[in-house]
Amino acid sequence: MRVIDTVGEMQQQANLWRREGRVIGFVPTMGYLHEGHLALMRCAKEKSDRVVVSVFVNPTQFGPGEDFERYPRDLDRDLGLMASLGVDVVFAPSVENMYPQGFQTYVEVLEVTRPLCGAKRPGHFRGVTTVVAKLFHIVKPHVAVFGEKDYQQLLTIRRMVQDLAMDVEIVGHPIVREPDGLAMSSRNVYLSPDERKQARLLSQALAEASRLVEAGERDGSALVSAARKILAQGPSIRIDYAELRDAETLEKMGALDRPGVLALAAYVGQARLIDNAVLQP
Ligand SMILES: Nc1ncnc2c1ncn2[C@@H]1O[C@H](COP(=O)(O)OP(=O)(O)OP(=O)(O)O)[C@@H](O)[C@H]1O
Ligand SMILES: CC(C)(CO)[C@@H](O)C(=O)[O-]
Ligand code: BAL
């Protein structure tokens, strides 16, 4: 496994593989890897013959007062995990290499980034699309894999790729969960043992909404209220948003008359966690 830390070297490697006719699979991450990330890498491996993983905590997607500085980092541990999985190249650039002096170009997707995390974290998706567009130009992948845990991010990337005719296939991977249902996230490390117990309420809230849909409930506010009621059982939980939205456009929906996504963001202590479930009418 090769570790590359400059843009130029990564582009050379990608060009070489492309000349050889290799299919490049790509998994962008912010590191501090868990089983969710590894599942994305296995998926990329199945769909390509060379796998690149980027490890880059992207400053432009964090707002003031967010956790950029304290975001967990452990590149040595990450490298061990990726080597045992058969990743070919790890691209781990510095902030200065990705955002050199004078940087002033951004990529922005409009409608789909407005609600949910876009409303709560202004500028977040502009940072995500800018860095992902740049990573695509550096890694030159044929296929890139993203997790459905970051559901709005996945829709945003799909929109960007379609609108700008980027020649990359975007693959979504289902959410990987802990045995008690908690969606795996690097930020779970922020949870105290007691908060960790409460954090399972997020997936339980989604499971309750899914159960109600199975039982015939179609009223959006009833589904959201049921989810909120479960989250209210956690004394350390503060809801950031809990909303039912159109699963494709993220427009508001009053009734589940087409596929919807119940999207949650909640602080559990200091940790802001997200989770979602796609609900079929
Ligand atoms: N539990 C999971 N299941 C599936 N995909 C996941 C999961 N967690 C993260 N991913 C995906 O991994 C990629 C990299 O995400 P990232 O490095 O931000 O990890 P993370 O654990 O989501 O971190 P955090 O939520 O704390 O920022 C994204 O495409 C994300 O959707
Ligand atoms: C896609 C991504 C690596 C861009 O920094 C990040 O938003 C993430 O880890 O989901
Ligand atoms: N997984 C999304 C990265 C972030 O929260 O900034």
UniProtKB/TrEMBL annotation:
The active site of this protein is located at 37 (proton donor)
Q: Which residues bind beta-alanine?
A: 61
Question: Which cell locations does it reside in?
Answer: Cytoplasm
Q: Which Gene Ontology cellular component annotation is one that this UniProt entry carries?
A: cytosol
Reported EC number(s) for this entry are: 6.3.2.1
What Pfam families has UniProt attached to this entry?
Pantoate_ligase
Q: What biological processes does GO assign it?
A: pantothenate biosynthetic process
Alphabetically sorted, this entry's keywords are: ATP-binding, Cytoplasm, Ligase, Nucleotide-binding, Pantothenate biosynthesis
Q: Report the InterPro entries cross-referenced here.
A: Cyt_trans-like, Pantoate_ligase, Pantoate_ligase_C, Rossmann-like_a/b/a_fold
Quaternary structure, per UniProt, is:
Homodimer.
Q: Which family does it belong to?
A: Belongs to the pantothenate synthetase family.
- What remark does the entry add? The reaction proceeds by a bi uni uni bi ping pong mechanism.
Q: What is the designated name of this protein?
A: Pantothenate synthetase
Q: Name the species this protein comes from.
A: Desulfosoma caldarium
Q: Could you read off the lineage of the organism from its UniProt record? A: Bacteria, Pseudomonadati, Thermodesulfobacteriota, Syntrophobacteria, Syntrophobacterales
Gene name tied to this protein: panC
